[in-house]
Amino acid sequence: MTQNLKLKLKMSVRTPFYYYDLALLENTLQSMTEAVTNPNFKVHYAIKANAEDRILQTIKDHGLGADCVSGNEIKKALEIGFEPQDIVLAGIGKSDEELDLAISHGIHSINCESIEELEVINEIAERHNAIANIAFRINPNVDAQTHHKITTGLNENKFGIPITELDAAVDEILQHKNLALKGIHFHIGSQILSLNPFANLCQQANNVIDNLKARGIFLEHINVGGGLGINYTDPDAQLIPNFIEYFKVFEKFLRLEKGQTVHFELGRSIVGQAGSLISKVLYVKKGANSNFAIIDAGMTDLMRPALYNAFHKIENLTKDGNNESYHVVGPICESSDTFGKTDLPKTSRGDFLMIRSAGAYGQVLSSNYNLRDRAESIYSDDTTLEEYISNSKEVLEEQAF
Ligand code: LLP
């Protein structure tokens, strides 16, 4: 009887939920801003990585700009208080409504990904009697040495204007009186752990800058995108990425002229380690080949393992040790609904598991497939994780008697 009551009351902690360590986010932002020693370097945050209000507010308070890829992201950035001059819009398929919104707010730059787009942007800018600031997003054909599904800067990828089309793009933009070419933009991919691809990107950017200069075009800003990776295998070994070494690459290899600024669009490296997905074990079942730990979080809450075979470290918050092997899987009727195999202490129903490094591309990619509820956000400023979980245990014990 008591046991039954206990089980029932355990349901009172609604899982799964995202837990955000705002102190770690603050420290990451602090380290990042301290690593920027060049006054001409300006960092934007790629909102797509995590668009929770409190996360965005913290990031804005540290003086970053906003990199948006949709009209709704622009609206969100404005609502949080980012200045239009600190907002850029990218994306290979911007709708007329999104362009209208960007132009009516006079955002810093529209990153244009095709020659075809220029005419549309010009028409909308003309209607607003405005000059739209354009940056050409260029595909530099640089290998980011990361997962192919998050590689964006190769010839085979849909992104950006090919370098071979650059001259034609310049010819086109010069014909439009409501467009001003102010910059160039690159983004070669995400979760990049070696700094070599960034060095290669700088060489390509230098060539582009020279080519445009030869045509009499001075660029006010060079946007090198984002992509700096984080340590998923052993997050505690590096909770904060090495921003110093990252920025040094651009300091060393990018040839800048007086008056040129460099823009960065970091997403994962800012928020990745600050978020975890907390889930409860529903059942432990003996399979033919492995023991399954079936948890109440699924690919609807964290898509990365299903989409990219991504590894996220999993810890049992209820017990210590690491002596049994489990295949941790979600409740959804898809074989790709798995978080991978891992060693855990002897795990049982009701244990809390923490799936680490889920702050970036976690909650934003969630869906309500199977009509499941979406995981809510809990913040370290309101409660520690231990408190949050153990408070609910107290409720359980009190009521069990
Ligand atoms: N700028 C542009 C134009 C981008 O497309 C992206 C990310 C970023 C900046 C930020 O990149 P970051 O610093 O976060 O690497 N869902 C995938 C990642 C997709 C990245 C898309 N673009 C994942 O979960 O790994």
Number of strands: 17
Please give the alpha-carbon distance between the first and last residues.
10 Å
Bound molecules: ligand LLP
Count of discrete domains: 2
Radius of gyration: 23 Å
Oligomer description: single chain
How large is the share of residues in beta strands?
Answer: 15-25%
Which second-level CATH architecture of the largest domain applies? Answer: Alpha-Beta Barrel
In round numbers, the mean pLDDT is 93
The H-and-E topology, N to C, reads as: HEHEHEHEHEHEEHEHEHEHEEHEEEEEH
Specify the structural class: alpha/beta
Brief overview:
By secondary structure, the chain is an alpha/beta fold. The chain is 32% helix and 22% strand. The chain has two domains: 23-266, TIM Barrel; 273-396, Lyase, Ornithine Decarboxylase, Chain A, domain 1.
